[in-house]
């Protein structure tokens, strides 16, 4: 089944982004709820630090993958074989518990006359990683962004990640890894291309 990918709407005036002060006040509420005293010396600057950290950790909401992928190159001397960038590290956050997802992404595409700068692929992973996510959605978003912008003959994405919502809470199983894949075009219709992608990742 094809993945459904939602484009996040921009905030309008009625659902505007809270101010820095509102974010810091919310952190103080959480500190009190957790059972601590936000006015004690060690926590005085924590609300400002948390708000600043969250701005960086969730900076993907302020960026569009299409803008990053906008520039492509056509002078490829006839190269039309797989382009693979593997072991791209990323840090994201689970949208269910807001705890970290730590993993790596492997992204490949089959050129159709144009190629991307290699750093652009890593940047796309970073953009989608720095949002509240599920691993399944993030995998599909990366593939969709590259597929729609570059129009290649196919895109393959695999993500391997450990979810702290499983390691730190709930079932508390440290070290377990979740794998997700999305294939488009030739990677989806030609099993041999999928096998080649998987082989190159593991080589």
TrEMBL record:
Residues 1-22 are annotated as: Disordered. Residues 24-202 form the GTP cyclohydrolase I domain. Keywords: GTP-binding, Hydrolase, Metal-binding, Nucleotide-binding, One-carbon metabolism, Zinc. Its EC number is 3.5.4.16. It catalyses: GTP + H2O = 7,8-dihydroneopterin 3'-triphosphate + formate + H(+). Belongs to the GTP cyclohydrolase I family. This is GTP cyclohydrolase 1.
């Amino acid at each position: 089944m094809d993945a459904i990918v939602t484009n996040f709407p921009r905030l309008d005036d009625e659902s505007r982004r809270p101010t820095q002060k509102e974010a810091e006040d919310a952190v103080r509420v959480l500190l009190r709820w957790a059972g601590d005293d936000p006015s004690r010396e060690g926590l005085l600057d924590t609300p400002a630090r948390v708000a600043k950290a969250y701005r960086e950790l969730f900076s993907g909401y302020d960026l569009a993958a299409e803008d990053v992928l906008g520039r492509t190159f056509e002078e490829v001397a006839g190269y039309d074989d797989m382009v693979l960038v593997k072991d791209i590290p990323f840090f994201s956050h689970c949208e269910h518990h807001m705890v970290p997802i730590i993993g790596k992404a492997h992204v490949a595409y089959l050129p159709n006359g144009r190629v991307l700068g290699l750093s652009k692929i890593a940047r796309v992973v970073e953009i989608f990683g720095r949002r509240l996510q599920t691993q399944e959605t993030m995998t599909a978003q990366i593939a969709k962004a590259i597929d729609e912008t570059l129009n290649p003959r196919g895109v393959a994405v695999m993500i391997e990640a450990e979810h702290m919502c499983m390691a730190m809470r709930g079932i508390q199983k440290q070290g377990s890894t979740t794998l997700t894949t999305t294939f488009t075009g030739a990677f989806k219709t030609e099993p041999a291309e999928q096998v080649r992608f998987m082989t190159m990742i593991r080589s």
